[in-house]
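User: We ran a pulldown and think these components assemble together. Before we commit to crystallization trials, I'd like a predicted model of the whole complex to look at. Sequences follow.
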Amino acid sequence: MKYVLPILLGRLVRVLARARGGGSAYPGYLVLKLLPTFLTDVTKQFDRGVLFVLGSNGKSTTTHMLSDIMRSHGLRVFTNPTGANLPQGIASALLSEVSLFGRLKADVGVLEVDEAFAVELSGHLHPSTVLMLNVQVDQLYRFYETSRVADMMTDTAATAGTHVVTNRDDEYLGPFESATLDVTRFGASPALVAAAPHGLQNASAYDKGAGTRALTAEAEVTALTATGATIALGDQAVDVRLPAKGLHYAVDAAAAIQTARVALGPEFDSHKAVAAFAAMKPAYGRGERLKIGSDEAEFVMFKNAASLQLNLDALATAPEQVLLAIDEGTPDISWIYDVDFSSLDHVDVVSGAKAWQIALRLEHAGIPIGTVEPQIEKAIDLMKALPSPSGKTKNFIVNYEQMMIARKMLGYPDLEKRA
Amino acid sequence: MTDLTILQLYPEQLGVSGDGGNVVTLAERARRGGLDVAVTEHRPGDALPAAADVVLIGSGPLSTLRAIHSDVLRFRELLSDWSDAGIPVVAIGGGMEILSRGISGEGADLEGLGFFDASAHRGAQRRANYFKVSTPYGGGSLYLLGFEDHATRFELGAGASPFGAVVSGGGNGDGREGVIRGASFGTQMKGPALPLNPALTDRVLTAAVARTGGAYAVADAHATLDEYATKSREVISANLEHVFKAM
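Assistant: Here's a predicted model for the assembly, 666 residues in total across the polymer chains.
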């Protein structure tokens, strides 16, 4: 009975917050205040436990992939919406699905977790498996040491119940080992990495020195195909369709498959995983295609130099029509000078509060700009007004906050709530 | 014939905060001013460079400053001699700190080059905000705009001059910002500093070519760069009080 009142109150606050048009983590915050054991109590009901997804980039995409693979094996999955990866955000997400008595009918929890809160959350959620995707230079205004972010992830991995899945090609994460845990790895073949214009964008561990130990990847991307990738699982190779273009998505897929393999054990069926990828929709704003007039807007979201570079590198040809927008959601954008924009031959509209800074950067690279329009709403109207491109695709390369506004403007509801 | 050689130190290790942008803007503005430009780079283990007309050393976290520490100490005499000869050395953030007498606090115990008469103390309250500074570098007072992101109190030696005065932001922690040594300076200004502040870039270029008897002037070809920089600066100016969630 201890659940009824906190859950009722949390739900009420949630309804009020929604009515005001906000996606708020406050309901989760409130429930955690009233019932500090809420996260533990609910998630311990999951027979298959909780899986954590950690990483600088690709958390949402991989969480989405892993959830779909688990579902394809007949499991009921509880997962958190993108960005709801702090304790209160996860509590809010649970709140929307539990019964008044704190019951939740799910077999497994697949959760993306913010690096800075991962150790704390592990204390509440006791993940059986921790997946570490990558350490890339990210949010230095927040973390200021890339090695610190790596420590947050490996400290969390050490708290896993049984399995750790890590990135062989990441200088910080690859060498992770444990005397008590099952540690396996995913990666991309050296030939693929060498062929990528700017590699995998994983941070260099200058302070650790070069690793000397050769590591094996139990799941390795060996080829990119027109619509997906080939992933070698030991002596077996599977071809999966990918929900969005790029080597980084293929690596995320290898990570998700390897994590499903260890979490499911002998139950893992690669045919089911392949079927899950075949039916998979892109994660919110990551390669997602939405209607814009008689054409489609293809969204690419980034939050730092690494994710922007990887997405630019994934472009097959310079886009016919493209908008590039960054706002104050990304405070210091000094790093735009670390990004090679040469895969763009022009940009039609530059937008967001940082529009002039982007324009300044592009002018230094000699990339012509159509219009600088800091207001995203007006910028989208400018994109709409451009004549229909021959490829019927208008590219939107945007940070998180601008993606949310643009999505809404194109008439797509706000499905995702941010913590 | 090359009119201007720009040397960047440790582009990978001290280059995650757009430090390459300072190189790009020096090169691009010089080219648009009609100069023939070469960009060279020094990496750990390379032989000491023979010559340069302007030197940039960018920012990086403590872990990478440690990684390049033994290599950068080799520059002790060279940078000092170059600067005395009028070659501008532009040092940003961690680069400025390692060029000071040393970095202490928060487990940092790094001897610096003593190029700047100052000491860096880590562990001050972390700042991540827009930044406005006035500087007398290279002529009349100039307002600089950018971003600062550090947790350093920078203590100047008795005879040292600051690079400028803080108008908005934290700077060295005492109202002053950075340090100046002839045509060389250190600053916490990011954004990066030089693209956002073309007037400062022009003063660095002027100092660099003055030594070799060359000339640099702003031309029509700079108009778009200047327009975009002006607009960028207006937006930063209007948002100086913006508070970023630094967690």
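The first strand of chain A starts at residue 50 and ends at 54. That may be worth checking against your pulldown data before setting up trials.

User: Thanks, that helps.
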